[in-house]
């Protein structure tokens, strides 16, 4: 592997760790599991051939984009029995919230809040200027 390819892979590794830290801030379980998942993928592909590397580098870019823009976090409001999801401006620009019918939970902990196997999702717009 050339020095520039190694640098790109290490840069991608750091970008994925920053993206997961941002997405899962405050959720120790998700941080731990995502850390193990990212590391496992890099270890699995440490002996990749030169012909595999461009695809793997693209997968890093795609994974970072998904973590930053394709996943939203919700907070369970037990009093109301809903998961409140606040969309950031980046998410709003990529989603059609008028026609979106549901969001799928990524953990089994969220099953059955509505009695039908899927949580009730309430989408609000995040007005914070971070």
Overall description:
This protein has 130 residues and is mostly helical. Helix content is 48%, strand content 12%. The chain contains four helices and three strands, in the order αααββαβ. β2 (82-87), α4 and β3 form a beta-alpha-beta unit. It is elongated, with a radius of gyration of 18 Å. The N and C termini lie far apart (39 Å).
Radius of gyration from the CA trace?
18 Å
Q: Please tell me what the overall shape is.
A: elongated
- Number of discrete helical segments: 4
- Poorly predicted segments: none
Number of strands: 3
Mean pLDDT: 80
Q: How many strands, what sense, and barrel or not for the largest sheet? A: 3 strands, mixed
SSE string: HHHEEHE
From the helix content, strand content and strand pairing, which structural class follows? mainly alpha
Query: Hey, roughly how much beta strand do the residues contain?
Result: 5-15%
- How are strands sequenced across the largest beta sheet? 1-2-3
What helical percentage do the residues reach?
40-55%
Q: How far apart are the first and last residues' alpha carbons, in Å?
A: 39 Å
């Amino acid at each position: 592997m050339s020095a520039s390819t190694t640098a790109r892979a290490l840069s991608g590794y750091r970008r994925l760790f920053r993206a997961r830290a941002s997405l899962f801030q405050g959720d120790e379980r998700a941080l731990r599991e995502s850390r193990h998942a990212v590391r496992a993928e890099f270890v699995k592909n440490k002996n990749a051939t030169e012909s595999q590397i461009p695809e793997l580098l693209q997968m890093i870019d795609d994974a970072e984009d998904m973590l930053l823009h394709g996943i939203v976090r919700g907070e369970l409001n037990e009093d109301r029995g809903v998961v409140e999801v606040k969309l950031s401006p980046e998410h709003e620009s990529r989603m059609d919230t008028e026609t979106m019918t549901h969001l799928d939970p990524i953990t089994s902990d969220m099953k059955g809040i509505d009695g039908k196997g899927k949580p009730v999702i309430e989408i609000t717009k995040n007005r914070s200027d971070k």
